[in-house]
């Protein structure tokens, strides 16, 4: 039966977690510090810090406490330009909190909009806001003005913090460069959140064209930290690389989460060039690599260089956020046999990651995507058919609905959209993911495609994600974008853009599709791009590729394979 229920409450959070969720973690390893205890000079293991119920009560504003207790002077975070110790981060957080409280009157649950660049001060700023009980609300510094204005209008922030001089934002604006990095303030006593108070808001694309603010509670975050670290296994000795922009929720996973355990995090803010990324992985002796599928594909552009000798300390590789070609996953799983390789899944609305699959051994020749796996501890999963009935038969496709303590509070200032996405069944709140999935006989879930990726063309229902998955089954294809394209004559057809170095890629894909799909699902227009263009979240910018295909097909009037060229000024969405 493909239905996953939460484990018994007494059995939750038994693995190494951080900021354990409200039922606590019981490992019987002796006494632990409480929020009122002095830190002292003795070295303590992370297990000792995070293994008992009293640590449940630690405020989010004490996020750096483990690092301070273990080694306050240890390098905590760095990029190409700066490096901060845990003591530095705590001082920054206290300084920022003091300034924002005194000069800006920031109070508990005030929303603070942070116009983010990928710099090392951002985690300290997030912790500063949590010290005050405020809501951390990061947005992209490169957002178009109209989109940023729409977010500001809906979110009504108490303060806007920027990294640049920005005018006419309609709220109190503070330039981060003006915030003090040291001062005469004392340690700020962190605010003690209730579990239902909002910790952060991440904005995602809205169906109405207005970005949706996903509100994640303190309880959501604690539950997630506890459950996901059973898979990640971060410790104070971990060395994590972050490729993720701070306005994307994976930054909580790859930066704030390891920092809270006393681990080191390197912020990669260089160009998306495989050679540079690989060099950084080796130089920084990275143990944990978390990368969306597009970024992992870029790092993998020289397969012969993905070896245990190149990355001797790498313990874990995790990918997700979009379908990853099985050939890329197989590369890492086969070349680094000592590393755990995961394919994971999770919408922003269910706190970053909620399902995961460990590739126990690479399946050479696999052409279908790897499963997204089983739910994390505390996550409940059901599949619903088109009539709202629950699917319990293996391998039958339905909409994936996710329940449990990681489900968001709702969309900011949008009760209608919240009501459309959240529902209750059996006393459990569920989120409708909009993703079509199936569950196999082993209890592993498989992503099939988006509900809204299903189109109707010439009277036939077609799932574009199915076509994309078949394109990615060809090993010479790094990424693929499939969608509806308007021809120069005004007719709507299916178009596909392949990111590939080999000129034979389109013919290989066509041959595969001819054996796997009906004729009406085979794309009419084809394009080939030699480079992967990343969107703002670090994923493949499929809309940009398809737009370029439509535009260049219009110029040439061609229905043959089109070489897609992307200029430096092409929009990135």
UniProtKB/TrEMBL annotation:
One Pfam family named in its UniProt record: AMP-binding
AMP-dependent synthetase/ligase domain span: 72-412
InterPro entries (UniProt xref): AA_adenyl_dom, AMP-bd_C_sf, AMP-binding_CS, AMP-dep_synth/lig_dom, ANL_N_sf
Entry's Gene Ontology molecular function annotations: phosphopantetheine binding
Recorded superkingdom: Bacteria
PANTHER family, per database record: FATTY ACID SYNTHASE, NONRIBOSOMAL PEPTIDE SYNTHETASE
GO biological process, one term: secondary metabolite biosynthetic process
Entry GO CC: cytoplasm
Stated name of the protein: Amino acid adenylation domain-containing protein
């Amino acid at each position: 039966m493909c239905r996953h229920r939460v484990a018994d409450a007494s059995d939750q959070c038994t693995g190494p977690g951080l900021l354990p969720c409200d039922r606590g973690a019981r490992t019987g390893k002796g006494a632990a510090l409480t929020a009122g205890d002095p830190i002292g000079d003795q070295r303590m293991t992370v297990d000792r810090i995070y293994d008992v119920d009293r640590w449940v009560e630690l405020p989010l504003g004490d996020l750096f406490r483990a690092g301070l207790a273990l080694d306050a002077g240890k390098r905590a975070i760095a990029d190409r330009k700066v490096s901060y110790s845990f003591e530095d981060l705590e001082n920054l957080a206290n300084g920022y909190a003091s300034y924002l409280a005194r000069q800006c009157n920031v109070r508990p649950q005030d929303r603070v909009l942070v116009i983010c660049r990928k710099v090392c001060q951002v985690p300290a700023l997030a912790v500063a806001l949590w010290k005050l009980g405020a809501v951390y609300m990061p947005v992209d510094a490169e957002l178009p003005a109209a989109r940023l204005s729409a977010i500001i209008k809906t979110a009504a922030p108490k303060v806007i913090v920027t990294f640049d001089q920005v005018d006419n934002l309609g709220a109190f604006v503070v330039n981060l460069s003006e915030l003090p990095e040291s001062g005469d303030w004392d340690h700020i006593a962190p605010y003690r959140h209730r579990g239902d108070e909002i910790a952060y808001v991440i904005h995602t694309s809205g169906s109405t064209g207005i970005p949706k603010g996903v509100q994640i509670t303190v309880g959501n975050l604690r539950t997630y930290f506890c459950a996901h670290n059973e898979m990640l296994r971060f410790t104070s000795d971990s060395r994590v690389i972050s490729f993720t922009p701070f306005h994307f929720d994976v930054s909580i996973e790859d930066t704030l989460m390891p920092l809270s355990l006393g681990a080191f995090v390197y912020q990669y803010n260089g160009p998306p060039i495989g050679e540079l990324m690989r060099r950084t992985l080796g130089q920084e002796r990275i143990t944990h690599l978390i990368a969306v599928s597009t970024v992992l594909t870029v790092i993998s552009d020289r397969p012969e260089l993905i070896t245990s000798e190149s990355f001797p300390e790498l313990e874990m590789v995790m990918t997700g956020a979009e379908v990853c070609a099985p050939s890329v996953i197989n590369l890492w799983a086969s070349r680094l046999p000592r590393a755990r390789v995961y394919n994971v899944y999770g919408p922003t609305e269910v706190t970053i990651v909620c399902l995961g699959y460990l590739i126990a051994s690479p399946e050479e020749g696999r052409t279908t995507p790897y499963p997204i796996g089983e739910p994390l501890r505390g996550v409940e999963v059901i599949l619903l058919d088109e009539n709202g009935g629950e699917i319990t038969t293996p391998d039958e496709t339905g909409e994936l609905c996710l329940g449990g303590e990681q489900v968001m509070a709702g969309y900011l200032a949008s009760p209608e959209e919240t009501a459309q996405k959240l529902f209750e069944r059996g006393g459990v709140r569920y989120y409708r993911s909009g993703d079509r999935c199936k569950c196999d006989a082993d209890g592993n879930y498989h992503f099939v495609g988006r509900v809204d990726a299903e189109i109707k063309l010439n009277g036939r229902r077609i799932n574009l994600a199915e076509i994309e998955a078949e394109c990615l089954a060809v090993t010479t294809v790094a990424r693929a974008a499939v969608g509806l394209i308007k021809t120069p004559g005004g007719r709507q057809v299916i178009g596909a853009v392949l990111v590939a170095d080999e000129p034979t890629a389109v013919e290989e894909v066509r041959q595969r599709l001819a054996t796997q799909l009906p004729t009406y699902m085979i794309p009419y227009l084809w394009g080939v791009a030699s480079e992967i263009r990343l969107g703002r979240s670090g994923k493949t910018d499929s809309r940009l590729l398809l737009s370029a295909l439509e535009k260049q097909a219009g110029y040439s009037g061609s229905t043959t394979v089109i070489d897609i060229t992307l200029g430096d000024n092409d929009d990135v969405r």
